[in-house]
Amino acid sequence: MPPRREPGAAPPRPSMVVAIWLAMISVTSLFLALTYAYLYRHGLTTGWLSGHLAAILSANTAILIASSLALHRGGEFFKIRQATAALGWLVTAFILGVLFLVGQAWAWSVLFAAGVYAGNQPNSGFFFLVTALHAAHLSIALGLLFWVVSRVARGRLPAERPLILQLTAIVWHMLDITWVYLYLVIVLYR
Asked: 10 Å Cβ neighbour count for 183?
């Protein structure tokens, strides 16, 4: 028999939620350490980040924020048991996440076309490293989101047990916040 809770007390947090938060803290710490190293070495080279590339990164940032908002909206519809509306928003979040990754690949191609590589520009090396790491983490989050979308589409995610949707949202939103931070570091300290 589960322990009794006092009226109005918050329900206990599932261990998976705590585990995801701990994982997100470690991932965020990795990016903080990388940006510290970048800022420490910042004076080595300048001029590698063009206005065109900054515009691409700005558009990508807006796309990722929109995907986070769509995921949140999908979760809200899911809570009130409107699965069709939730599914539409979740699919939108997924598509925007994929579009963000395509935009990041485009940003890399702009650098390659300008002759900027990790080996010839130390500061651009930071850009390649953090965007590749972020893309890898976002790809995992896209896999989670795809799984959630497929379960909602098949009616196999009960509204009274939305744990996988909650976990996916935590990962997605933390990666979104991490990207906004990285974007600001890259653009402000170019």
From this structure: 17
Give residue 32's pLDDT: 86
Alpha-carbon distances of 120 from 52, 104, 111, 125, 158, rounded to whole Å: 20, 20, 12, 8, 52
* DSSP calls for 6-47: -TTPPPPPPHHHHHHHHHHHHHHHHHHHHHHHHHHTGGG---
Mean pLDDT of the chain: 84
- For the chain, the domains span 49-188
Report the alpha-carbon distance of residue 25 to residue 43 in Å, rounded.
29
* Farthest-apart Cα atoms in the chain, separation: 66
Rounded to two decimals, the pTM is 0.80
Domain 49-188: CATH superfamily, name plus number: Cytochrome c oxidase, subunit III, four-helix bundle (1.20.120.80)
